[in-house]
Every structure is written in C-alpha cells, then in structure tokens.
From TrEMBL:
Metal-binding is among the record's keywords: no
Alphabetical list of SUPFAM superfamilies matching this protein: GroES-like, NAD(P)-binding Rossmann-fold domains
Annotated protein name in UniProt: Oxidoreductase
Keyword set, alphabetical order: NADP
InterPro entries the UniProt entry points to: ADH-like_C, ADH-like_N, ER, GroES-like_sf, NAD(P)-bd_dom_sf, Zinc-ADH_QOR/CCCR
Enoyl reductase (ER) domain ranges (all copies): 10-323
GO molecular function annotations of the record: oxidoreductase activity
Length: 325
C-alpha cells in the first residue's frame, strides 16, 4: 500500500510517499481502508521528533474509511489503549501516529474499540477531521466541566481548531457562548460558528469585558482555556464557576491568587484527549443534536503530504487540512 512515510525528524521534506507493507492481522484489531485523513498540529510535533517515534514511521492521528472485515463506514478514535478508568488514561495510553502507524496511508490498523460508525450527515473529509478535536472538546466541556443546557461558556483563543469545535459542541449542548480572540476576524469566525459575541484578549481588561457579556453580568459558568492563561481566565468566572484547561501554547506556568480562588469556590480542571466513552458521547451528540462538523480548508492527495504540512505550518487557512488516499 502507499503511505506518507517519515524518513527522519525535521521539516516537511522528511515526509516521502512510498510503498510499504499492509498492516498484518492480529486479534482485537481491525484494518480500515482510508477514504480521508486529517492533519493536526500534533502531527507536526511527531515529525519534528517530539515523541521519539520509530523511524521510518507513518504519522497521522485522524481518519475515516471502510472496515475491511465488515464493509462498515467508520471514523477512527486516535486515543489508543486508554485503559479501564474513565477518569484518566492509563500508563500505556498513546495517540495514533506517535509510535503506532498512523493514518497518512491507504490503510491503517487500530483496536476495534477505536472505531465508530460514520455520521450520515458528515462527508468523508468532515468525518476524518472530527475525532481528535471533537473528542478533546467533548471531554473538556461535557465530561470534565459538565456543561449543560442554559449555562454560559467563555472560550479563550477564538479562531483555532479547538475553539471552533468547542463552539459547535457548546451550541449543540444549549450553552450561551462568548469568545476571547486575538483579532476581530477570528472573533467573527467564532460568531459564524455560533458564538454570540467576543472580546479581544489583547486588551488588558479582557476578562472584565467578557464578564460583562455573560448572561447576568456576574461571570461565566465555565471558561475553556486551551492556551494556559489560568490566572486571567479565573477572573471571568462567576462564583462557583469552573475553568477547564487543555493547552499551554501561550503560557506553561501560572501564578494564582490562592485566597481569591478558594473564596470564589472555583474549580480548576485539567484534561487531554478523551477515550472510548467520550467518543461514544460525542457521536451521540452529533446524531441527537446535529453538531456542526469541523470546517475544511483544503484537501491534498496523499502524495503531497509534505505540501499539506507546509500549508498547515503557514497558518493561513481556517479549517482542517485533509489528505486523500
């Protein structure tokens, strides 16, 4: 089969399309003939050597295709070996494409628990783009933060893939959504996705500005912080509110007002990508509430995986970049 093979760590040029052996059969695993794969920034980190992947290696976490054993159309959960506890992943947990061959190929093999039926309303490209960002946002907002119908949510970092998918999920849940973004255009994109309004987080008083946009002006029930601005995010909460954190690309350390935190009765929740239980919850929400799919920016043939990585690193597109075998 053909695959985009990472021949070494480095730039996009390290991805070379070549023929490799097809996955071998093993108990509990299923081969999937891929119809589309989606890029994530995580793939760039794999390519750069962050996760010490074996070489040569096929990266790629997201994909959708057809089971070779049953012919069922499926999408793939890239969260492997989650373990027995839903509260947190076990010691063997990994993301598909880290050390296990990923989805930059015509076929991929994954544990059967990592497969789910493709939503009928989603195209192949949309289905391939959903799992990683979708299950990450579902776990953050629903499993961890417990966001419910009628609550209010502030999303920090409007315009990115996580923030956009978080808007889609929160709207489907029935929450009131406000965003904090770096530019008016990114706030506009979030509003197109379903957010009610937004503020610029380049303004020093952005938490106070956002707080005034909450339904009663007292603050938000939940703040989703995928960038690491904990101390500022807490300022936008109502008493008893919760901050759920899933990233640190702006700041990896935070200074907290401990006394103010416990007098505010706040909750601080950490999260990562979800497991099979979160995946099932996400897809139930897609079917029952019509969660909008991730936006698609552009599709490349598998043979142009290097060009697809260059496009993603350029950061000029809004939406997911797709590979088509």
């Amino acid at each position: 089969m053909r695959a985009a093979v990472m021949t070494g760590f480095g730039g996009p040029e390290s991805l070379v399309c070549q023929e490799i052996e097809s996955p071998g059969a093993r108990p509990g695993w299923v081969d999937v003939e891929l119809r589309a794969s989606a890029l994530n920034w995580h793939d760039v980190l794999v390519r750069r050597g962050r996760y010490n992947s074996p070489l040569p290696h096929v990266p790629g976490a997201d994909g959708a295709g057809v089971r070779t054993d049953t012919g069922e159309e499926v999408l793939i959960l890239p969260s492997l070996f989650w373990g027995d506890r839903s509260q947190a992943p076990g010691d063997e947990w990994e993301i598909l494409g880290d050390t296990t061959r990923g989805t930059y190929a015509e076929c991929v093999s994954v544990p059967e628990e990592c497969l789910a039926p493709r939503p009928e309303s989603y195209s192949w490209e949309q289905a391939a783009a959903l799992p990683l960002v979708g299950v990450t946002c579902f776990r953050a907002l629903v499993t961890r933060a417990g966001l419910t119908d009628g609550e209010s949510l502030l999303i920090v970092g409007a315009g990115g893939g996580v923030a956009t998918m978080a808007v889609h999920i929160a709207v489907a849940v029935g929450a009131h959504v406000v965003v904090a973004g770096s530019t008016p255009s990114k706030i506009g994109l979030a509003q197109q996705a379903g957010a009610e309004s937004g503020v610029l987080h380049s303004d020093d008083d952005w938490p106070a500005q956002a707080k005034r946009l909450s339904p009663d002006g007292r603050g938000f029930d939940v703040v989703l912080d995928p960038v690491g601005l904990w101390e500022r995010s807490v300022e936008a909460l109502r008493p008893g509110g919760r901050v759920v954190v899933l990233g640190a690309n702006v700041a990896e350390e935070a200074r907290m007002d401990v006394r103010g935190f416990y007098f505010g009765q706040f909750s601080l929740l950490g999260t990562t990508m979800g497991g099979p239980q979160d995946f099932r919850g996400l897809l139930d929400l897609v079917v029952e509430r019509g969660v909008r799919p991730p936006p698609i920016a552009r599709a490349f043939p598998l043979s142009e995986a290097a060009a697809a990585h260059r496009a993603m690193e350029a950061g000029e597109s809004f939406g997911k970049i797709i590979l088509l075998p």
